[in-house]
């Protein structure tokens, strides 16, 4: 019998008694005796399935999230906890809620009994380390409190927090060796790179964990104070015992802290953290917990949470719905996180230490998710916090030159698409909820929109984003269009007329992607030609394909700034309604094993991911609100529950929950910066919104039941109400909205044009300044750019009735240049430039390409140059190996058909020329798209030979492993040669498996290759 088993069998009865005692005081799992909103919070919801939430303790928007960690690798362990596990590593102080990437898990403590062991062990073998088994029935989780029995030791662990400090209570059975391990190597999907531990007193330890992961450079200083003197401390570097018993530093440091305890004695630990310094961590701790009364802090946490949750009071008989509702409100208010110490100091985006003046500084902005419903919810229940969020974003702009996209602990991760700080800032300005400098805000927003990365260069140059030049082109286009509409509203407010019309035009650019033949938003290339590799059901992810975490069904309906314009593309209401109806009737499939986020499918509506979230509400815009009511009720009933897997997809820092909160109240912000809420169907008999201005807005639903989901009629403040939307002003001013509900749809309620919401990119009654529509540029029918003796070039244009003018000498073409009338014959390397011209249209941009007369005669498999590979290409990217020599270069979209892939294996290609030839230079291109598991090689080598046996290395280039999810680029490797050779060899070393920081850690890495270049 191992030591853990012996301890477990001897102390189990103590653990059971302790659990019974605490159950008498903390009865969070009971469905009865719930008297206040916080009693309904169940943090276990979302800890199973793909919810990615954590069950531990935190305060509203708190700096500390104190929670158990059960796993630190893999997509379903982004929060460090998953309900499928049966053992706990320990309790760390920082966690992500519902994200699709893992990080944090800083400053881990774990109590245990027995001989010193600073190895965490594994899920398969917990006995190898300090990890302990546990049972789900022994967990208690509520707002601000968590407890569990560690079965291997009979230890009861209890956790609570203040905003900046964690409070642990570990109750030990009788033992001679009561230990608490402090593990600074531990982290969730990241790597510690600088740590230290210092014994600062008889009951105090301080230190730092600096790590690299999703957040490239994260600092967490800490001070831990214990309720009784430490008996002994053992310090470790890289798991080796240090001779120094006071201080240790290194990449991985740990401490084993020993106590002498009596039977049933509790050791309490208070831990303050800071991103600034140890001194600040100590000040945070001493300011927020100046005593050792654990139960007092638990009670204070419950009081704080109850105050927050009471902003919305719901009444009705369904206890499960209340549990989902208040847990959703809870999840919506644990992110963003406080990132300012009690003295107002914080670590900025520039890495320097700053002091916040007149506002509270926050971190962790998952804006691709939360701009949709979470921040609009804050505008109702937490406008003061939202003002601080806006000011934090603008401060980040001032320090880094950019508004945050997906910011984490002072680091811009660059994750996802769009610049969705913009709608959050604009909504706060238009609702009068921020005292931020509007001119500064406009400067910051315009700066984001006019950058030249993330596809914006093409948007500014061509008016759209070509799919052959930029991955996820359709998704980026539609989301930029919405953000640009938001910018236009502030330009109008500031009377910047030229900017207003410029951004309004960009807000309508999504229309260029509407393909009438397929009736979808579809990728098109730089010359306007539709992407031939189109399947509306095919799901692509970040960095690949034309869509981001979705497909054409999910993105075709995203034009919240111009819903009426989108409807017009379908020929009006009937065509749009049919397209919407078709979405629900499609097969509910996800064809991409890497698209983990695309879940919660009802047909091709995907509630488990954000792009679909507004779609059910679009029926209101065509006078069919009863269909919105039908599908919203279906989503509410099927995509949420009180189970651990009660979320159909990633919680995503509040967005999944915010959708539920708003929809359960009876409305949703389709355009989250317009100030209108589109009416759906209520869930509760009565909802009372307690506004921060002192007003109450009450939503009363009569004859409501699970089946009676259809609105029969409505009354607002005593007057008949027949609109299918309500404004923020009406809610803010307070009043009573009364719905009469029924079993069957009332197809006449709010069905008229006057009753429907309106969403147009250009304000009603305004018109754009007249301008000519720009033609698409010409293109070559054959995409190959290399040729042997001669080459015939055929030009075409997407627009009918155009003329093409071209040059072959590198000069800019005009109508005075050669007019294209027949295919062009080339016999030497040539730069071709061409324009399209048509009366009544603006001249196209210049098409420019270089044709290279190559030493290669052709690229067929039975002719020279011959290419052989030591390892075959990997399916489904096992294109003909000859395409590596065809002169057609791959862009940043790896699904363009020009990239050949090889997974986990090294790449080695040998090219045999027809005869010994003077070669001046060699080259090869690799794609780097880390989110899609595609990495650049660690090493590239060029070799040459005259006989095919003896090879001479002409260049060896080595790279470092990438360190984040967001790298998308074409990596070009070149080498001079100036030798006569007949054989060329190119080697590339595959990094092997995905690193620890990656969501797919442990899986095989892909290398994508195109093109091998041999210039004579």
Automatic annotation (TrEMBL):
MF term (GO), any: peptide-N4-(N-acetyl-beta-glucosaminyl)asparagine amidase activity
Cellular component, GO annotation: cytosol
InterPro entries found in the cross-reference section: 6-hairpin_glycosidase_sf (IPR008928), Fn3_assoc_repeat (IPR026876), GH-type_carb-bd (IPR014718), GH92_a_mannosidase_put (IPR005887), GH92_N (IPR041371), Glyco_hydro_92 (IPR012939), PNGase (IPR050883)
Domain Glycosyl hydrolase family: 280-742
Domain of life: Bacteria
Biological process per Gene Ontology, one example term: glycoprotein catabolic process
Residue span(s) of domain Glycosyl hydrolase family 92 N-terminal: 40-274
Keywords, in A-Z order: Calcium, Signal
Cross-referenced Pfam families: Fn3_assoc (PF13287), Glyco_hydro_92 (PF07971), Glyco_hydro_92N (PF17678)
Position of the signal peptide: 1-24
Cofactors that this protein relies on: Ca(2+)
Subunit structure: Monomer.
Protein name per Swiss-Prot or TrEMBL: Alpha-1,2-mannosidase
Source organism of this protein record: Aureibacter tunicatorum
